[in-house]
Design brief:
10 strands, ten-stranded antiparallel barrel, mainly beta, single chain
Length: about 160
C-alpha cells in the first residue's frame, strides 16, 4: 500500500531563508558579448518549491541567442553549502555552487574547459537586482558574460 505524501512533508528549509529577497517576478534587461549590438528583454521568477524546501528560478529572454532556463537551488545542511542545478532549452545542464553574502547572491562553476560566475547585487529596497556574469575558457582570463538588470514586478 502506498501512503500519499501530504502538505505536512512540505516544509520550509530554514537554510534557504537568506535567498528570500529573490522571491518574486522580475523584468530583465541585459547584454551579452555574443550579441554586442542587442539589448534584450525577458522575465525571471524565483519561487519556493515544496513549501520552501527548494528555490526554483525560471528565466525567459526574448533573444534567440540567450536560452530560456530553469534552476533549482537547495542546501546541504551538514556541509553548510548551497547548490544550483540548471537546465536550458539547448539541453545544457550544469551544477553551480551558490554563495550568499551581505546584499549579494552568487553562483559559480569552475570546470577546466568552461568556468562561469554570476554575482547578483540586491538593492537595499529589494526592487532591483544587478547581475554581472563572467566566464573563462580553458583556464584563460575571465571575460564578460551575461549582464542583467532585474526590476521587481511583484513579490
Amino acid at each position: 500500500m502506498t501512503t500519499p505524501i501530504g502538505p505536512a512533508a512540505q516544509r520550509p528549509n530554514p537554510a534557504l531563508e537568506p535567498l528570500a529577497p529573490l522571491i518574486g517576478n522580475w523584468r530583465t534587461t541585459g547584454t551579452h558579448p555574443l550579441v554586442p549590438e542587442a539589448t534584450f528583454h525577458g522575465l525571471t521568477s524565483f519561487a519556493w518549491h515544496e513549501g520552501g524546501a527548494f528555490l526554483v528560478m525560471r528565466s525567459e529572454i526574448d533573444e534567440p541567442e540567450i536560452p530560456d532556463g530553469v534552476a533549482v537551488i537547495g542546501s546541504d545542511d551538514a556541509a553548510g553549502t548551497f547548490t544550483m542545478l540548471y537546465f536550458d532549452e539547448r539541453d545544457i545542464s550544469r551544477r553551480y555552487t551558490v554563495e550568499v553574502g551581505d546584499g549579494e547572491v552568487s553562483w559559480h562553476r569552475d570546470e577546466a574547459g568552461f568556468a562561469q560566475r554570476m554575482v547578483l547585487t540586491v538593492a537595499g529596497d529589494g526592487s532591483r537586482l544587478d547581475a554581472k556574469g563572467t566566464m573563462s575558457h580553458e583556464g584563460g582570463p575571465w571575460e564578460d558574460d551575461l549582464q542583467l538588470t532585474y526590476e521587481r514586478i511583484d513579490s
